[in-house]
Amino acid sequence: MLNFKFSIPTEVFFGKGQIKVVGEQVRRHGGTRVLICYGSGRVKQQGIYDAVCAKLAEKGISFCELGGIEPNPRIKSVRDGVHIVKSHGIDFIMAIGGGSVIDCAKGIAVGACYDGDPWDLYLRKGEVKGALPLGVVLTLAATGSEMNGTSVVSNLETKQKLPIRMPFLKPRFSVLDPVYTYTVPPRHTAAGTVDIMSHVYEQYFSPVSGAFVQDRLADALLKTCITYGPVALKDPENYEARANLLWAGTLALNELLTYGKTGDWGTHMIGHGVAAHYDVTHGVGLAILFPHWMDFVLGEDTQGKFYDLARHVWQVPLAMDRMEAAREGIARTRQFFTELGMPARLREVGVAEDMLPTIAKTVVEFGEVGVFRKLNEKQVLEILKKAY
Amino acid sequence: MLNFKFSIPTEVFFGKGQIKVVGEQVRRHGGTRVLICYGSGRVKQQGIYDAVCAKLAEKGISFCELGGIEPNPRIKSVRDGVHIVKSHGIDFIMAIGGGSVIDCAKGIAVGACYDGDPWDLYLRKGEVKGALPLGVVLTLAATGSEMNGTSVVSNLETKQKLPIRMPFLKPRFSVLDPVYTYTVPPRHTAAGTVDIMSHVYEQYFSPVSGAFVQDRLADALLKTCITYGPVALKDPENYEARANLLWAGTLALNELLTYGKTGDWGTHMIGHGVAAHYDVTHGVGLAILFPHWMDFVLGEDTQGKFYDLARHVWQVPLAMDRMEAAREGIARTRQFFTELGMPARLREVGVAEDMLPTIAKTVVEFGEVGVFRKLNEKQVLEILKKAY
Description:
Chain A is of the alpha/beta class. Chain A folds into 2 domains: 11-180, 3-Layer(aba) Sandwich (Rossmann fold); 186-386, Dehydroquinate synthase-like, alpha domain (Up-down Bundle), CATH 1.20.1090.10. Chain A is built from 15 helices and 8 strands. In chain A, the strands form 2 sheets. A 6-stranded parallel beta sheet of chain A has the order 1-8-5-4-2-3, sandwiched between helices. Chain A has a two-stranded antiparallel sheet with strand order 6-7. Chains A and B meet through strand 1, helix 8 and helix 9 of A and strand 1, helix 8 and helix 9 of B.
């Protein structure tokens, strides 16, 4: 186990009706003029937007809005937001939505404290020492962005999708009401479940040994997704299923699983490469790529981690040969994604075969990806071809 | 799953050599005059005390000490500490030790902000709105006090052992260096492992249903104890074992397992009743009492939780009858405690049989205990007799 510093300052208000705290929490963190960020009209139809406005107004807090933030959020939206913040004296950012809206809101929060173009920060060209405080009302179980300091943003002009990670981007508070996820369409419920599982896998597959407690916590979150993903698909208003998925999604990426380890994140980098060229839903891309990544990296040296996963999560028979069990675990993962209705091939989501070399080049733009198994351009291309 | 507010502000510096942060962290939280609390001479012999002093001195922070804090810390030590704090203008408390030292330090931290006798606070007679900031250097994997807001203190005169829980008692930072636990004697390593498992059980056995993710996180911590407790006993300087136990102990009682549920805590209340009359090590008392509590509450209505535990943690065969599996899980728990060298009977730790009714009376002094199964005086006495 590696040394680590545990620091999770985000306060989470979890459960039905917790939106009631929004006004007092914004006030507590010094907010007086708020920019509300959101994506689709769903948050307006459902009354979540109005509820947030009402809670802010109750506390005498003024606000303006930036709507229409897209999935795989664009740097253009971040720039638009920064412009509003700077021209309206905004001092607090509220994100209402899923990971894309939150990631964009984080870009705005940090961009507001930077003099140049916010894309510089994603390119590691600019330096910044803080961000505006951020609050979240979450509407989708998926990315974990509601409790971490990461923002991933796409630049359509340069065909790049890049992350920044800064401790001060961790939201001050997040409201997690499972009821707000009742109306998430089946396809996004499934993609969100895959997304959560992928985050767990990225951290589970680590070259660091001896982080047993973290690995078993990973099992717990995977079992939760496997148990409740299908329930939420069949019965969208099942509070227990929605609550367990929502909390698992947050815990999967609030650093709990990664303290004391290093995650792999190679598959995410490949997914980002695909997303830079095609508008593929994040979780859908990962559902296609992960089983192929697993096939690719499974070997005598890596078999142990796959075996443990098969035994603890998929409960393969203890008597099964270790390599056979490892393969069975991968097969069960693939089968589970299929049962969730996920596509299994890149060709099914509109990717053109002759674009695969370009995607591979994008993936390794800043060097090899992955640490459990380092991947160069050739290896990335091989995985992309297998997944095609 | 119940609504909850997640708030874990304590920062943990985990791993070998992390003591280096002590000076800067005390400074960061406004400390200029520190009271260092510790228990036995082990922290001096091992150089931990000197290392803390050196780090404070480097930052120009003055300090004085309160040593000799006993296991099951007494209100007298709290009073002594409060006296020192008030007479020396202390503004920060550093605890070096295990749960007893930390609990006493918390009593001092809050007692310093109260005009009356600190025991009032444990009796819920006094009111207080804050505490001095607290830092911890942990030397024992057991109580989880290093990351929560609970303090349990004994009053030998009134034969009471009572807890207080206040969010502002959560330490500002805790240093967790597994190397510091290398010299923990086997008996305390075993008792600490039981203590961690007991905390998990108290939260696992909840009347709240549908908190699946929390229950599976509980499994993860139990598996960690079962895997590494015996390793640490055989090979005290095994870093991996000590690190996993240390981190599991902290996660077992930093509220992660209990958010969205209510814990039982009946067995702890019985243990506190015993400890109010006899100086029994906390973990030893729990090792004796828990299997008997489990026997007592197992029934058709409670069988499900026992069955899940047996299946997920002890991996009993899936084909086994549910009630049989539930009993097997309890038998395996009892056997594991015995393998750790724990006594199985109260008579083995010096408790007099004719004191059992008095202990039962102490336990229910403030009413029935437990919520998974409420226990009155008669039922507590029955458990005590079975455990005798």
